[in-house]
Each structure stands twice: as structure tokens, then as C-alpha cells.
Amino acid sequence: MAVVVLVIALIAVSAYALIPRTTNKYSIELWYNNDGHYGDVETQLALTVQNSIKDCGHISVSLKSDPWIVFKQDRQWQNQRAPFFLLGWFPDYLDTDDYIAPFLATSGANSTGSFYSNAQVDTWIREAASSADPTVRADRYSKIQNQLAEDVPYIPLFTFGAQVVYVTGVQNVELHPVSFKWFVVNKPGSTTLNVSTSDKIITLDPASAYDYFSGEIINQVFDTLLVYDWKTSDLKPGLATEVPTVANQGVSADGKSYTFHLRPGLTFSDGTPLNSTVVKNSIDRAIRLDLAGGPAFLLYDTGALTNDSKGGTNTAPGVIETPNATTIIFHLFRPVSFFNSLMAFTVSAPVPGWYSQTGEQPSTVGSVVGSGPYKLATHVPDTLIVLDRAFGTSAANTYYNKNLYTADGVGPIPYMDRVVINIKSTGTSVKQDIQTKAVDVAYRTLSPPDLVDLQGKATSLGLTVKLGSQPVIRYLVFNLNKVPDKRIRQAIAYSVDRAAINQIVFLGTAAPLYSMVPADLPYSVPVFQTRYGDANCASANALLGQAGYYLGFHGELMAIAREH
Amino acid sequence: MARGGSLLAYALTRMALALPMLLILLTAVFIVLRVLPGDPILALWGDRNPPPDAIEAARQQLGLDQPIPVQYLTYLRNIFTGNFGVSIGVQYRGQPVWNQIAVRFPATVELAIGGMIVASLVGIPLGVLGGANRDKPIDLAVRLYGTIVWVIPIFWLGAVLQLTFGVWLQWLPPNGRWTGADVPCATAGSCSFRTGMYTVDSLIEGNLGHLANAVRHLLLPSITLGLVLSGFFTKTVRANMLRTISADFTEAARARGVPTRAIVYRHAFKNALVPVVTVLGLQFAILFAGAVLTEKTFSIEGIGILLLNSVTTKDMTMIQGVVVFYATIIVVISLVIDILGAMIDPRIRL
Hints:
The complex is a heterodimer of chains A (564) and B (350).
Chain A: H1 2-18, E1 26-33, H2 42-54, E2 59-66, H3 68-74, E3 84-89, H4 101-104, H5 106-112, H6 119-130, H7 134-151, E4 154-167, E5 192-197, H8 212-221, E6 226-228, E7 235-237, E8 257-261, H9 276-289, H10 297-302, E9 320-324, E10 327-331, H11 339-343, E11 374-380, E12 384-389, E13 393-394, E14 397-398, E15 418-423, H12 427-435, E16 441-443, H13 448-461, E17 463-478, H14 486-495, H15 498-505, E18 511-512, H16 527-531, H17 537-546, H18 553-563
Parallel strand pairs in A: 1-2, 5-15, 5-16
Antiparallel strand pairs in A: 3-17, 4-16, 4-17, 4-18, 6-7, 8-10, 9-10, 11-12, 12-15, 13-14
Helix pairs in contact in A: 2-15, 6-7, 12-13, 14-17
Chain B: H1 2-35, H2 40-43, H3 52-61, H4 68-80, H5 97-132, H6 137-151, H7 154-168, H8 198-205, H9 208-245, H10 248-255, H11 260-288, H12 292-297, H13 303-312, H14 316-344
């Protein structure tokens, strides 16, 4: 009898062990933009992310999409429709702060839609932003990034590869991390450089421009107090004689005052004098107009030139001092360690006093006048931009900063008398233009298949394909109000497969990103690589198991198969 | 005299009816744009998120903080005083709407005319040929052609022509409207007036090299658009040819011994063209709204792309401006067609 009972008990236990458990998967919606705000492969990207997460087995991901105007509204705090979504970021000023504060500071996170809030992180961000000491900044940014990896309000995915294709023989074509510099490009034996792009200009008024291509053209036509090196994001003297530092007493010890000394005898390309009053008035103009969609808030809010973070009026008396025609002093309401970078941003470009003081300056020939190496010669909206040498080549009439890069063997700038930029509706047209050599340079934006195709044909066509990195990052966002369980976010961080994204969607032209700060910026720590890696299903599923999500027998087998 | 007065009354009635039609359209567009989801102001900054105060300041600058009825009345007042406002969308932010339409419309007109010429040159003769040879092999071939080209995706046909004649053979520029920096009449004082149509402006300049440049760029998009439209033209002309060939007056001509060739081309074809011209006129007017796929494929910044970009960014002022502009064209052309129809056939006025 006892044996019978024992046998029955053994059979019962074995049966219980063998019967597949009911699957309990975690379900989440992944939202993405569907009208090309991030290019033509966004659906492929969303599908690849979806597959990489759900292939681990424990999570069911459904895709949802919206056009940009709805998409952006959906993730605002009013709507909060999206629990998990794909976003991108192009920096305003090339400083680590611009990859941290907009995402991890409480106010930035609310706007981004993650609703992340951590008082300690806020303190670290403030400390890093107000300190010029690299040791302090490295410490705070390291702590912030480690906290990011722990809390996972975002999952960094990849940075876009920058690409330019040009006819072999064209010289000094550099993929600059901030803005392409046409004035360093040289085509020996020619005075005109022909270019094709699919980028569009929105405005050429520095007070209003806040998109890549408008900024790029402004950078050819307008100079700022500080400018960038021709290859790197290092700052060099532009209209100012030197880059202010604490050491040269250009920056006060408390980090709240910045003094710039202008070069003497500066003029705009129309001959209008450019002095410290013009610089002050230009910055006041941008802040006062605070044009819709414009970047003025980088001056009055990010740059702390007002005490209430509001535009609409000039800066308060004494905030911007002009003790003489060549000296300008900015007194900030709080220390801003990257203020120099803001002075290299297009919104800080001086404009002549005759520019409209009540609204946006038209982007037409004759209305756009700067102090840079080129001037606007022709502008057919969304079709053609022609830039001509702004100053002569004689000693009496020459570009003031023509020898800026001669130490590197580059210059005098600008090389070409004329740059003709043909603006096309699609990347396909850009490819056709360079393929037929209708232009000398094709820059932005070729689709991954077109780029790979041109790489294959480069030698036979006599073209050079140059690849680089650009500071655009793509990442996933969790709305923490909707996905409050950290284990779920961490599990998804384990599941994501960046190699698959790069190969399937970008044909190997993107670079994996393991922190919100790109790898080539100071203080970047690849925290997601060390902590999560890629497609780590075992760790993801272990976490999800702890959270109460598990698979049936067959699901476990499939997850194990994928793992191996 | 009585007849002329009747025609004038008819024309005035039609014009009076056009005005409320326009008003209804404007109102419908205004309401639809405000009912659709999405916030164009938030979208202005792309991925960036300015402080809330900056967003509110932008709403005030653009008048979107006003109550909807106030916005509507302002909109109507502006439209009827010729003020189309400035763009509020991210693509054309801050640009005067009318300027954007004026810059792009000539490109669309040039393309529409080019496309219509190709469509007419190909479609009308084929339609006549098919109609005159009903159910014969040539008619079958024409019917097949009409069906195939009408359903070919225009971007696909465009890409094939681009690759063949633009990239491989390099006979024609694969895209764009112009090669070089010296756009016709772009330099101040170079022309007494400027149309924005590069072919016409080249003629105004008297520069044949420029004319060749403009025409070469216009060929591939015109052929693409024209071939697709020719399918519709072929079918329309053929159907009307069949109707007129079997009509009483052609039977009578045949009975009187008039040669078949003369019946087809002198009697049947002429009569078949009357309804065809009406249809083609309307088709032409529709093309003025922009052949968006052709424009996109060939990188022609016409009014079609303008409208497409404005819709995707919910650029309300730009959409309203383009729709008003387009509606006015349609109303005017419809009016002209109606009046012409009434002149040709007095029964319409009854």
C-alpha cells in the first residue's frame, strides 16, 4: 500500500514538474515617429528594437506611431500617452552638460517625458555645470552616468555616422562635430565648389535659427566671439582675441563673469563697424525678440543672462558691460562653465544694427549680412544657396581671421571664391548628383543603402567616401510614471541588441552608444556596456522572473535557444 | 442682345455662388486643422524643450493664445484683405505664406504645362487611333497602354527614367530645375520682370543657353508626369471618339459618301474633343495644386511639396494659405469652363 502511495506521489510530482506553467509576460507599447522626423528608417529601427526585446521571451512589445506634431505632444506631461518611446538629440552646445541636464535634471526630464527626478542627481548636475575644474566635473558626470545606469530612465542606443562623399582631389573635407566648414574646403584649379544636400534652411537670422543646416550656413556667413577648430570641437578665438579662461583672467574666480576682447577694426561684409556695443545689442536683440522656435533661451535661461529665465526684454542693466569699443563683459546670474560654448553658438553671432529690431530678419540676399568669410549671393528657398567670398584678397580688404588655421597648414580661408549649394528634396537626388559628378561634394543625407552603394563604386567613379561620427544620439525613453518598476527597465536594457540595430537598420554605418554622453565627448563613461551589454537575455529574464513575469516551458526553451 | 444679357446674368450668378463656396471651404479647413491632433508650437523646437515660458511666448507671438472664434475672425479678415500671415510650422517657420507660395508656384506651373504637353501629344493621338480602330489589334494595344501607364506608380516611373537617362546615359540632368549659380533673372536689374519659371525667364533674358538648361531639367519630370496622365487622356479621348463615331451625324456623313479618314478626323475627332477639353482643363487645374510625387522624385520645390510639408507639420497658416490659393484657382477655372460651356451650348443657361 505504501509503495502504491509512493508511486502515485512520485507520478504526481513528476507531472506537476512537467506540465508547462502559464506564461505571464510583461506587455509594453513602444512608440516611434512615423513621418520622417528622424529619417526614413524609423519603422525599421522600431521593429528591430521590438524584436530584440521580445526575442528574450518575457516581454511583449507592441508598436505604436504618430506624426511628429502628435508624437511630441503625446510625451508631454499633459498627455503621457507613451510609456516607452524612441527619441533623438542633437546638441545645442558641444558640452557634456548638453547630454545630461536635458535628460536627467528634473526640469529637463519632465520636458523629455521620462519624469525622472532624483535630488542627488540634480545637485551633481548643478555642481558640474558651475565648475570649471575638470576633476570636479569628471567626478560628478561619472556619478550621474552610474546613476543613469542604475535607474534606467533612458537607454542609449547609437550615434549616427556622419558621411560626406566628394570627388577625389577635393581637399580639406572634414566632418566637423558641430558644423561643416565650407570655407576650409579646397578644389585646386577651380574657384567654385558645387555641393548637393537634402538639408533645408529655415532662417538665416541668428536670433531665430535653431536647426542644423540654417546654423551651418550661418556659420559660413557670420562669425562669433569664439569659433571652433576646423577638425575638432576645441574653441579658438573668432571675433575675440582669445578664449577666456580663469588663467588669463577672462573668467572670474566664481565663474560668473566672462570678459571678451574684440579684435580692433572689425567690420561686417557691408562695411558696417563691429564693436562691443554691436555684440551687446545683438545678444539683447535675440533675447528681446525671443522668436518662436528660436534658440534665445540658450542665452537667457541656459546661459543665465536673466535672473528669471525669461526672454522678451533686454538683459538688465549691468549684465552685459561694454567699457570700451573692444571689451565686452558678461555677468551671469549663476556660474555656467560652458558659457564659452554658448558664445560659439549661432544665436550669439553679432548682426548689424540695421537688422529688424521688431521681428525676424528676412533670409534674402542683401538682408543677410555677417562678419564671416562668405556672404549670401543667391538664395532660392529650398533650392539653391550661393555663397561668395565676403571680403577681398587684398591687404586693405581681407577676411580678418583668414590665418585662423594656418598652424595646421590650412588656409588662408576661405579657399573658394564661390560655393554653390544645391538643395534637393531627397537623399536619392543627392546621390544622383555626386554619382554623375554634377557636384563636387555631397553632404547630408544619404540613406544607408545609398551610402553602401557609393562605397562600393567609389573607386570606379573617382569618389571618396568619408565616414565619421556626429554628435546626434538616439535613445529609448521610459515614462517612469507608466513604467515605475526599475527591474523592468533594467531588463529591457539587458535585452536591447545594438549590433542588430547597426547591421539591420544602418548597414554598419552607425556606432553603438552606451551612455547618453557620446564616447568622443569628455567625461563619457560607457555604463550601459559594462553593466548591461547587449542581448543579454539570461540577465533580463532573471530580473523579470523576480518581478513576477515568467514564461511557459516552450518559451523558456526558445529564450535559451536565442541566448546560445 | 437678349442672349448676351442672359450670359452675363449666368456668369454673375456663378460668381455669386463661388463666394459662399469659398467661405465654406475656408471655414471647413479652419475647423479641421483645429480638430486634428498635434501641437505645432511644441514641434517648432524639434527635439529640444525650451522653458514653458518660451512656449507660451511663442503662442502669443503667433496669435494661438486667442479664443478660437477670435482666431477665426482674424483669419477671415486677414484672408479677405490679402494677408496670408506667416508660417507657424517647423519647416517654414516665420516665413510669409504668400512669399512661399509665390516662390514655388512657378515651378509647379512649369511642370504642369510640361506634363500636359507630353500627355496631350501622346494621349490624344493614341485615343483617336484606338477609337478609330475599335477592337482591332491597334485598339487593344492602345487600351492596354492606357491602363498600364495610368496605374504605374509615378515615383517608380520617375526613378526608372532618372536612372536610365540621368545616371547611366547621362543625357539629361536626373533632378532639380537648374544647374549652376546663375539662375535666370536672379540678379537685380537683369530682367524687366521675373516669372520664376526658368524657361520663360530665360526667354525674357534672351539667353538661349539658359533656356536649354531649364528645358533639359524639365524634360524628365514632364515625360514622367505626362506619360502617366496620357493613360487617362487616351481612355477619355477613345471613349469620346467611339461615341461620336457612332453618332447620327457621322452616320449621315458616311451615307453621303464622305471618306472614313475625313469622318474620323474632321467630324468625329472635333466633336469628341469638346468634353475632352473640359476634362483636361480641370485636370490642368488639379495639377496646379502640385504633382507632389513628381515634385518629390525630381527635387522640384513646387507647391505640392509645400502643401505636403505643411500638412505633416500642421502648419495651419500655410495650409490655409495654400488651400485658399488653390481653391481660388479651381473656382476661377471652373467659372471659365462653365461660362465657355454656356456660350457653346445655350441650353446650359436655361
